[in-house]
Amino acid sequence: xxxxxxxxxxxxxxxxxxxxxxxxxxxxxxxxxxxxxxxxxxxxxxxxxxxxxxxxxxxxxxxxxxxxxxxxxxxxxxxxxxxxxxxxxxxxxxxxxxxxxxxxxxxxxxxxxxxxxxxxxxxxxxxxxxxxxxxxxxxxxxxxxxxxxxxxxxxxxxxxxxxxxxxxxxxxxxxxxxxxxxxxxxxxxxxxxxxxxxxxxxxxxxxxxxxxxxxxxxxxxxxxxxxxxxxxxxxxxxxxxxxxxxxxxxxxxxxxxxxxxxxxxxxxxxxxxxxxxxxxxxxxxxxxxxxxxxxxxxxxxxxxxxxxxxxxxxxxxxxxxxxxxxxxxxxxxxxx
Amino acid sequence: xxxxxxxxxxxxxxxxxxxxxxxxxxxxxxxxxxxxxxxxxxxxxxxxxxxxxxxxxxxxxxxxxxxxxxxxxxxxxxxxxxxxxxxxxxxxxxxxxxxxxxxxxxxxxxxxxxxxxxxxxxxxxxxxxxxxxxxxxxxxxxxxxxxxxxxxxxxxxxxxxxxxxxxxxxxxxxxxxxxxxxxxxxxxxxxxxxxxxxxxxxxxxxxxxxxxxxxxxxxxxxxxxxxxxxxxxxxxxxxxxxxxxxxxxxxxxxxxxxxxxxxxxxxxxxxxxxxxxxxxxxxxxxxxxxxxxxxxxxxxxxxxxxxxxxxxxxxxxxxxxxxxxxxxxxxxxxxx
DNA sequence: ACCGGACGTCGAAGCGCTTCGACGATGGAA
DNA sequence: TTCCATCGTCGAAGCGCTTCGACGTCCGGT
Lengths: 336, 336
What we know:
2 copies of one chain form a homodimer. Chain A is built from 14 helices and 12 strands. By secondary structure, chain A is α/β, with parallel strands linked by helices. Chain A has 3 domains: 44 residues, 434 Repressor (Amino-terminal Domain); 126 residues, Rossmann fold; 132 residues, Rossmann fold. In chain A, strands 2-1-3-4-5-11 form a 6-stranded parallel sheet, sandwiched between helices. In chain A, strands 7-6-8-9-10-12 form a 6-stranded mixed sheet, with helices on both faces. In chain A, strand 1, helix 5 and strand 2 form a beta-alpha-beta unit. In chain A, helix 1 crosses helix 2, helix 5 runs parallel beside helix 14 and helix 11 crosses helix 12. The radius of gyration of chain A is 26 Å and the shape is elongated. The model of chain A has no long low-confidence stretch (mean pLDDT 92). Chains A and B meet through helix 4, strand 1, helix 5, strand 2 and helix 6 of A and helix 4, strand 1, helix 5, strand 2 and helix 6 of B. The first copy, chain A, binds a DNA duplex through helix 2 and helix 4.
């Protein structure tokens, strides 16, 4: 193994000069720097990660905790992970992969051994048991998703409220006057995450603002549940022409149910959804939807972390990404 | 930060004794060990990863290179990654995530800086440019997939030949006498990977062994291509009752085409496939299939790597996992 | 002409851990 | 009883890097 002293000798300088030439933490003359760089190339020098970490107390590694729970859309997680890795590399950092299974002990381990400099935690629950730990940890972290009490934590997520609004605004723009939100299963509104409620808020606010008649319907994540909701809507809201779906599992069966009940999409009924793009695009009738911007979330999370590590002042505690609606074939102007 | 000297002082021993108590590399009396462990718990000691890596030249981190190319099934990659992480943890190792994008330079970086002790490389191509590097690297590696020349490399993969055989044997067992293999797109047989050819070999061998009439049909990965192959099969092989599909993209359109042409699956035609489970199980007619055992592959890869690191003698260069066929609804006995 | 500061470099002191050699104590073999 | 091997522990020497303080040199300001 070629080490810094070898480079120093080869370039005719001291090891510290090589180090400074590499880090730029002190001025080095162009001439010297060039000579050092030539030596580095010639000898194929690579600084030893462990030694560097020990001396500088910086490992240049981030931890990424990925969820394992069923129900989350795998391609989205993957997209996110890739985006984090790519972004981290731009800042000369690597990414250590942890599974949620490791729990708090895992966080402790990588943080306390100084294996990583910082952490990104995905799939944060409303009352996540890891929160106190993340607050107490001496290393910075960024969460994906918003827990109930986010004070003192840096969080990134899609702005679900705005997403709800956006779906409604789109339907309003197409002339729809009566809309319904088909939401997550009832239990989700209680436990898990706050995002479900945020969607409801946005949906309702936008409907009110536009003087639309609106209603909200939690929906079980099963075909039968979707069918039930579809029937109920037809019965109770005969004037309904616009639906917003925030329930991945129910989206397809819901559309099927509507069509079986005699409503064509988008001719009779316009549908928008908040769900992964692949899901929306892959249906028989591709659905106009607001996607979860996994790549952008990953990038933001990594960048926030780098800023925290850099000590560039404070970073915002909450980052909400603006939703973007992708027009597909499930929406149409309301028939006069 | 609490360090080993703190623990040593607290326990009334020397730092080296603490180290030996932890590593077990020298005998330590029960009494002393207990005292040390109590001190560790009480002080909350965690050895510094960098220091440990520097002193022992072992980082206890594996690199995992995941593919980004489109066309590979994301959930399978994810399953694989999780499995590697889980297995690595059993051996007290962590996993650093690299994307294929980093290429050879990335491998060099993590290996030469001693950031990782060993590497797992997924999605290996037939003539992968990284092979010479992996051979030359001072750190052990395991490949997922078989390149053209695998000498000197440790490779793990599904036994695609046996998978082809298994599909045919199943059809033979159901009484089918005339079978066809609908394979990968023509270009795949040239470039990319050897697995396509292995499936053909297995398919043909098993058909011959069972005295079946058989034919092989490369197939473009498009609905139109699938349709074309279906039509051709009906025309040229009127007695055909069994099909093996080794082409993810063509599976669904192929079945659709058959049914549109008047063949019911499985009544008139039995179909087996080699493809990810989710795909096979998610179709209108769930398809009897041989799955890619991602979890087991990940576990095997990690375990092989640990053995190589442990220096427990030699490990086999090639590990082929036995295929397992999952019975679904696309196969039935041949009608008399 | 003189002084202060920036520039460019060096030497040395660690960072926290592992590991090697050494050494007394113990115990079984001769 | 003597000797040697083993056990259990210690001290010291690094592992390869960063960083701090120091020191000459050069330059511009006064």
